[in-house]
Design a protein that fits this description.
25% helix, 21 strands, alpha+beta, 8 helices, single chain, 336 residues, nine-stranded mixed sheet, five-stranded antiparallel sheet
Length: 336
Amino acid sequence: MNILNNYEGAAIKVLKNDIDNNIMYLSLNEENGKYSHYYNFIVENQEERKAIIYIKNIQNSPYYRKDVQNIPYIKEKEWKRLKDFYINEENELVINIKPKTKQEISLVPRYIQEDLKKFIKKENNENIKYKSEPIDEVIIGNIKLPAVVITARQHPGETLSSFFVEGAIQEILNSKDILEKYCFVIYPIVNRNGVKNGNHRYTNGVDYNRSWNKKNGPVEIKHIKEKLKTLDVKFFIDVHNDEITSENYIRTPCKNIKVDKIAGIKVLTSPSKIKRFARALIKQKKIINVFSKTANEYVFGKYHCNTILIELTMKQDYNNINNIGKKFIKELLGEE
């Protein structure tokens, strides 16, 4: 059995190969002094017998909760939920691999810059302006119109947000009415280096979504902030995944967004910094810096526009995320 972990978006550490028993022992990678949460690798089982993979340190991720089991994905031709796995008494993730198979296994479906480029090419729409440097930036519509800015993948391992953005872009392109009212500036993969390296939350020890008020923050965040200065920002939408909840939710500080749900997603008021601190400490057993500003906090404070944080549960099947992205844009902007 072979484990491949040297491609873009891969993330796993090989500990031991028990060739006689066709068993492989793996571990989550480490980032910023702690174990990551995201993992992705390809397994090749060339033998006529079943292979077994043990992934250690699953329970040592700051986002691991025993009562919230995120079912991993497997890809042969298409991504689907993995069935033949369990958590053993040592809290290891145990995966059985069929004989003579090659499969990609991932916490959530891998999504890298190449996937974004394929999507843009497939849409083949003259309304899309795309550039990749210094950050992947998609502009749709007349830049002089009120702007809707969408960001995703500040945290590299939260790949569902990129599938959501694909759906949003498709709805934008299919709606003449929306394009007549707004322009769209979209960043589907903000933290590209983290995505390449298979990180979950950090890149070089930096949490991009906690660096918006820092003078020496990431180049990508600086670019977005400079772009915002040139726009008439009407909406700012930041898309994430939540590892420890069982349902999607939206948080906003905007009192003029009065609906209970958008695209079936519950709309909640943004918690205070004290509540955020307590939530992180209790549920994720980590301490967050309450003095750092997230994207939504920074943009809302500076532009007083409609800011929306979307958290997609990792329990959400990725096949449905595209449609949720479409419905979200339609319901938020279609009847204004």
